[in-house]
C-alpha cells in the first residue's frame, strides 16, 4: 500500500524545542541521557538495571493485581503483570487523560506506539522483557478538558459538576448522555458495537478510572497492555522520601529553574511552583503552599505545621499528588521504565 510521510519539522505541529530535540542539536544534549534509538536502549537497560530499586516491583505487581481483580484479563496482560516482578523486565510507558470514550485519536496512537516499541525491543534484546504501560491520569482535576468528544461534526459533552481527581468521579448521569449519543450513532452493525462498548465501560462501572480501564483493556488487552492507576497509597509509599524532600526543600523548583535558564532561546512549556504537589481528597485537588512557616491547601481553610504535614505524609501518602513537574519522577520511581512516549507538549517538560 502506498504511504507518505510528513516530517515533524514541516508538519507545523511541533515547537522549536521539539524540532531541535529531534534533530539532536548539541545545545540540548546536556538535558537528556540517551537519545531514544533502538541501539541506545542497551545503555538505558543497563543503567535502569543498576539503579532501579527492585523492591518497588513488589507493591507494583500487588497493586496491579488488585486493580484488575474485577475485570476480565487476557493471558498476555496477565503474563506481563507477572513478568514485572522479574529484574530483567522493563516498561515502556505512555499516559493520557481520562477523556470520555477515549477522546482524540491521539490517545489510541500513543498506546499503539508504546505496544509497537515493546515488540521491537523484544526482537532487539530477547534476553529481557518489555511491558507496555498506559498510565491513566486519574489524579488530574481539569474535568472540562475531558468531558466531551466530537462525532460527526458535533460536540457531545457530559454536563456534570466536578472537583477533585477525575479518576474518582462517579459515572452517574452518563445513562442520559448515552441516550443522546445512541440516537446519533444509528443502528448499523458497527454502531451497535460502539453502543455496547460505551454501555459496558461507562454504565457498568462506578467511577471514571474503572470505566477507562475497561475501555482501554477491551481495545488492547490482546496486545498485553497493562493499565495503571497510580492514585494508590501502596504505590505512593515508595515516593514518600521524594515528597518529603519537596515539602522541606522545594528541590524540583530549584532544579527546574536551572534548566529553564539553559532554555532561554525557547518557549517554556511549564513553569515550576515552589512546591510542585497537590493535596487531594475525593472532591478536592488543590496546591500546597508554604507560607509563614506553615503549609496551606490553596482555596481551603486547611493548614499544617511542618510536623503535622510530615506525619500525614507517613500515614496517608495517597493525600499527596504530584503535579506535572513531579509526575515524571513518580513514574520513574515506581516503574522499571526505559522511556516515555508522549506528545510534543509532554516531552517539552519531561
Write the layout of secondary structure elements.
Layout: H1 8-11, H2 16-22, H3 41-51, H4 57-67, H5 75-83, E1 89-96, H6 106-124, E2 129-136, E3 148-151, E4 154-157, H7 174-185, H8 189-203, H9 208-220, E5 226-229, H10 233-236, H11 240-249, H12 251-262, E6 277-281, E7 284-291, E8 294-297, E9 303-304, H13 306-315, E10 320-322, H14 327-334, E11 337-341, H15 344-349
Helix pairs in contact: 7-8, 8-9, 11-13
Structural features, described:
The structure is a single chain. By secondary structure, the protein is α/β, with parallel strands linked by helices. It folds into two domains: 21-232 and 335-349, no CATH class; 236-330, no CATH class. The protein is 43% helix and 16% strand. It is built from 15 helices and eleven strands. The strands form three sheets. Strands 9-8-7-6-10 form a five-stranded antiparallel β-sheet. A four-stranded parallel β-sheet has the order 5-2-1-11. β7 (284-291) and β8 (294-297) form a beta hairpin. The longest helix has 19 residues, at 106-124. The chain is globular. It starts with 7 loop residues before the first helix and ends with a helix.
Parts with pLDDT < 50 across at least 5 consecutive residues: none
Pattern of helices and strands: HHHHHEHEEEHHHEHHHEEEEHEHEH
Largest sheet: 5 strands, antiparallel
Name the strands of the widest sheet in spatial order: 9-8-7-6-10
How many helices in DSSP terms? 15
Radius of gyration: 21 Å
Q: Determine the fraction of residues in helical runs and give it as a percent range.
A: 40-55%
Number of domains: 2
**Global structural class:** alpha/beta
Beta-strand level of the residues, as a percent range? 15-25%
Molecular shape: globular
In whole angstroms, the N-to-C terminal distance is 36 Å
Number of strands: 11
Overall mean pLDDT stands at 96
